[in-house]
Amino acid sequence: MNVELWMWLAVCAGIIVMLLVDLFAHRKAHEISLREAALWSAFWVATGVGFGVLIWNSFGEEYGQQYFAGFVIEKSLAIDNVFIWALIFAAFSVPRKYQHRVLFLGVLGALIFRGIFIALGSVILENFAWVLYLFAAFLIYTGIHMLIKRNEHSDPTQGRFYKWFSARVPSVKKFYGQRLFVRIGGTLFATPLLLVLVLVEFTDIIFAVDSIPAIFAVTSESFLVFTANAFALLGLRAMYFLLADLMHRFIYLKVGLALVLVWVGIKMGLHDFVKVPSGLSLTVILTILMAAIVASLIVSRNKEVVHAEPAHKQEFPEATEAEIAELKPLWRRSVRM
């Protein structure tokens, strides 16, 4: 696949423009309605699919199928992120109107980290082809582990990373609007929103450890790996507001994701012996995920709604307008003598 430099630059520029449009559209803190989330979700999915059609027409059926296989894998694994985000927001009692800003910055950071991971992965695989077998074994192990632990949920406030970070960063116990930092007196403090953002970024890095090897199992083209990741991540914020309150319905989603990871792990491990067509791989992935989603919706149709709640939920009040007005500027200006 011959991808010229201008194509990379055009895609990156397009992603930046779309991020800016999204930021401008949600520049004011407000609760995202179900209708708004549905419209934005449809827009981002259409954008990702449209880019896939462009790849298909420009580079051929094989690369088009590889892109769509990667896009479906990343989009599906991203849904698991939604559940973790819901737990994090619940653990810190983040008002719904502030959640979009955290997710926007979280996805922006995720795009940067994923780009770094993809570049490193491409270099490693190009120079050490045997690493593919390690990736394959890791994916199979991760899929089996996910299947066994599918009903277990960690408490975001009890993780080692959060305890380490919160112990070293002075913070206030109130939300000051969408601010991540505030200066009170002469001291700079983090707000609870920064702690939430750091956790969101940290969990995405953990998820990337699974998702990047998974997409390399269906395509070795760095351009397809990056764009499939990017377009899957761009719609993740809207997907959160669309699905966060419905996660109790997707009871077999982790089973489907686990089977997909095992499938792509087996495919990657046998790549030197059995050539699995991209079309067949895409069909298997779609079949597994659709079966998991349909079965989930049917079985959970009449079940009582039970939302997972962290055991150590923290409550943070919102600062009053008077308290916000008393804040000092974040950056001190030098005083000329």
From TrEMBL:
Residue stretches spanning the membrane: 6-25, 37-56, 76-95, 102-124, 130-148, 180-200, 212-234, 246-266, 278-299
Short name of any one Pfam family annotated for the protein: TerC
Location in or out of the cell: Membrane
Protein's membrane topology: Multi-pass membrane protein
Family annotation (InterPro entries): Integral_membrane_TerC, Integral_membrane_TerC_rswitch
Cellular component annotations (GO), alphabetically ordered: membrane
Protein family according to the UniProt entry: Belongs to the TerC family.
Entry protein name: Inner membrane protein alx
Source organism of the structure: Aurantimicrobium photophilum
